[in-house]
Design brief:
- The protein is built from two helices and 35 strands.
- The protein has helices at about 1-10, 70-85; strands at about 15, 20-25, 30, 35, 40-50, 55-65, 65, 100-105, 125-130, 145, 150-155, 160-165, 170-180, 190-200, 215-220, 220-225, 235, 255, 265-270, 275-280, 285-290, 295-300, 310-315, 315-325, 325-335, 340-345, 355-360, 365, 370-375, 380-385, 395-405, 410-415, 420-430, 435-445, 450-460.
- It is mainly beta.
- It has two domains: about 1-65 and about 95-185 and about 435-465, no CATH class; about 195-430, Tachylectin-2, Chain A, CATH 2.115.10.
- It is elongated, with a radius of gyration of 25 Å.
- Strand 29 and strand 30 (about 380-385) form a beta hairpin.
- It is about 5% helix and about 45% strand.
- It starts with a helix and ends in a 5-residue tail after the last strand.
Length: about 475
Amino acid sequence: MLNKIKQIFNKDKRISLDNWTKDYATGEFKQQVKIKPVTGMKGKAHIEVFDKDGKLKQEAVTENVINDSINKNLNKYVLNNIYGGSTTYSPYYNLNMFGRLIATNYTGAEDATMDRLPSPETYESVAFCHRTLTYTGSDTKRGSINNAETSFNPDTGEMSIVMDWPTHAGNGTFQSLFWVLNGTTVSNAEAYTDLYSSKFSSDSNSDHFRNSHPSACIVGDWYYYVHYNTYDIYRLPRATSGLKGFIAYEYQAEPVLTSGAVSYYGVQHDGTYFYVLVNNPAYTIEKYDESWTLQDSFVVDSSYFTNFAFTVLDSHLYTFRRTTAGDFTIRKIDMTGTVQNTWNILRQTDIYPPLIGNDGNDIYIIGGTTNTIAKLDTSGNFDVYQTNNSPVATYNHYPYRIAFDPYTRYWFSGTYYSSGNDSNIDTISFDVAPSAHTLLASPVTKTDSDTMKITYTFTMDMTKV
């Protein structure tokens, strides 16, 4: 019978018995049998809680689930390095997806397809630790990396990361561990990180993304945007290998809709039709099918826009208007041009120049030079998240349009680098998937008289990559 079970799971699934907790005071031992996916990377957490005398009080061991997106990108990263790391496909890739460990009281099941951290309302963060940073301060949640005990063995493909918490930090009860990007905050699921960039060739005329035409879109294997200088709508192809970003070489850019006597200001797609903002001579939204045949149009008030910022979601147009620094207005408009809702957002944060897009669920707005990320749902609920790890813009690096890619679930920003007159496509992530989730067999509790050590071991099996 056991051999039959092994045959069922030997390809895509495996049985994991290494999931248990033990309370040394009561002698209670709990173990779970789990079904785990077969992946090239595996992780296991070993948690030890010690009393004031240094005696082991509670212990837990659990294997994790690595997120599918991490395994996919790991495959792409390995293959891309074999390919040669060409600037066409991946000149830069930040693998710091395991930058911070968070211990929470979340009790949801492990899910390799989880595309973002659970809502902050569903759990409490009890403890966290940066993977690379030592810490000796008074923070009541933060632990410190133990560099002396952390080890890496390239011969066996194994790395053990050791983290310690003193008596005053990490107190409470937790049952889940999440690995996340280093920029991900403890209090919410938002983060920003540059993953990689793909540049137009260095050329003084390479100004496709220079200055703001923020509304771009990704449809299938094409990135659609408005050219800065010609006001035509162009598209760039997706790479067929590497990380499957977009090839931003000048000769690859194809015009799909030429402006002629009018000016195009932005392009969006709702899954079926393209929507183009055009000055003809009044501000007009034109609706096109996939062959770029005009289907319909309606006039919108030019006062609804700052820098032509708009997006289309659930058969409605959403426009952004900055009134003063820190104040702005979002309008929800139906496809006849009638305003359905107006939301005045006052004294939140400055978002300028505005880049706006949606991921099919929520609307995201970025301040291209003010380093701000904001999120709005279709009911007008608004939240602001400042960047934590990498700035949206630097002194010579200005994103001027963004588009969400359903295939990779990353955002792609058309970015202008003033230092070299380069136009690039940068890849960014806001709502990030946890890199790994570990659900313990039972909760672990640490008090203010205890210390805690977590040893997290990663093992690589390159035959599975």
